[in-house]
Design goal:
By secondary structure, the protein is an alpha+beta fold. It contains eleven helices and twelve strands. It has two domains: 44 residues; 315 residues, Glutamine Phosphoribosylpyrophosphate, subunit 1, domain 1, CATH 3.60.20.30. β9 and β10 form a beta hairpin. The structure holds aspartic acid.
Length: 375
């Protein structure tokens, strides 16, 4: 009986406490709840490393390319060479300044590529090559090594700077890759600069197309790669542009922009907008941008393969790049090269062609601009 009485007293006590708790809860002054929008923004800021202090002396570096191919000194005038060197230097300095001032590798990559896209010298943006139908169809991609987020666009005809479109796809859409008309609508809706397609006309690229078409008519011995046959690739230079960078926060990024291959047909898309082929970045390993015969770079998954070799085999960037360019991709029959930066700021150029327009700069401001295999 005593036990029953004790149990009764205990239950009454517990019930009373609970009720008091409720009252106390509801009388508590309201603490402003953090809105989910704010916390998402904070997360994004964190992901983008904004408002995070960096070490002033932190190492950073940047590499660019303006295409690889049969680039021989004997085919180049001193004036033309000086023009290429000056533009490469302007582009890399643009990216370097971003990094030096504490900007992100993504911004450095975008800005450096913009300079080359706005020049008629390179096969990207203003200097894009012509398709068989005498149009210019551009591809681009960008990747953030910290988040593994990526953006790409393919086959656009009126977006002045395709790398900006790739960046907008990454930053402002839930997708990774947009193509054709849809990509152009997205670009316009996101306030990117839209130009009349005639902006991309250059005599030099148009004449190159006419030359290839004439050759095509007379050549009967095309191999089974006829759809992609391009004498420019085999016999003269070509010039996709790309950039890889490491910023002061230790974040890697890479981007690539191109007009593709002269005389391409049927909505052909190359490696440049394909994440893992033309572009790849991963803070755990490296950032890579490719240039060359796109079909082979897709089949060999060049950019990702270099990163994967580093990740899974523990080899250096230099070793991985050499293996992938010369053995894996090269042995398939492909030509071209890559520029890359690893997580420690080591920079690598690797190509199996006679030349590659390229430049590099480290945090000490040491500049290298090179064109031929042996400079
Ligand atoms: N990789 C590019 C493509 O195949 C061409 C280039 O690098 O110049 O579209």
């Amino acid at each position: 009986m005593k036990k029953v009485a004790l149990l009764f007293v205990l239950s009454v006590l517990i019930f009373t406490c609970k009720e008091e708790g409720k009252i106390i809860d509801s009388e508590m002054p309201k603490v402003e709840q953090e809105s989910p929008v704010t916390s998402i923004k904070e997360e994004l800021d964190k992901a983008n490393n904004l408002n995070i202090n960096y070490d002033e002396d932190a190492q950073f570096s940047i590499v660019i390319h303006g295409g690889a191919g049969t680039i021989l000194k004997k085919n180049m005038t001193p004036e033309k060479e000086a023009e290429y060197r000056a533009k490469l230097e302007e582009a890399i300095r643009k990216g370097y300044e971003v990094l030096k001032n504490g900007g992100t590798s993504l911004d450095a990559v975008t800005k450096a590529i913009n300079v080359m896209e706005n020049s008629p010298l390179f096969n990207a943006g203003k200097g894009a090559v012509f398709t068989h139908e005498e149009t210019n169809e551009m591809d681009a991609s960008i990747m953030d090594g910290k988040t593994l987020n990526a953006g790409a666009s393919a086959g656009t005809t009126n977006v002045k700077n395709p790398i900006d479109l790739a960046r907008a796809v990454m930053d402002d859409s839930p997708h990774v890759m947009l193509s054709g008309k849809g990509a152009e609508i997205f670009a316009a809706e996101n306030g990117l600069e839209i130009v009349d397609p005639s902006y991309f006309y250059t005599d030099r690229r148009f004449n190159a197309l006419q030359k290839i078409k004439a050759t095509e008519k007379t050549e009967l011995d095309h191999d089974d790669k006829q759809a992609f046959y391009d004498s420019d690739i085999k016999n003269s230079k070509f010039g996709t542009v790309g950039c890889a960078a490491l910023d002061k926060y230790g974040n890697l990024a890479a981007g690539t922009s191109t007009g593709g291959m002269t005389n391409k047909r049927w909505g052909r898309i190359g490696d440049a907008p394909i994440i893992g082929s033309g572009t790849y970045a991963n803070n755990a390993t490296c950032a890579v941008s490719s240039t060359g015969w796109g079909e082979y770079f897709i089949r060999a998954q060049v950019a990702h393969d270099i990163s994967a070799m580093m990740e899974y085999k523990g080899v250096s960037l230099e070793e991985a790049a050499r293996e992938v360019i010369h053995n894996k991709m090269g042995k398939l029959g492909g030509t071209g090269g890559i520029v890359a930066v690893d997580k420690n700021g080591n920079m690598v150029f690797e190509f199996n062609t006679e030349g590659m327009y390229r430049a590099s700069m480290n945090d000490k401001g040491n500049l290298k601009v090179e064109i031929y295999e042996k400079n």
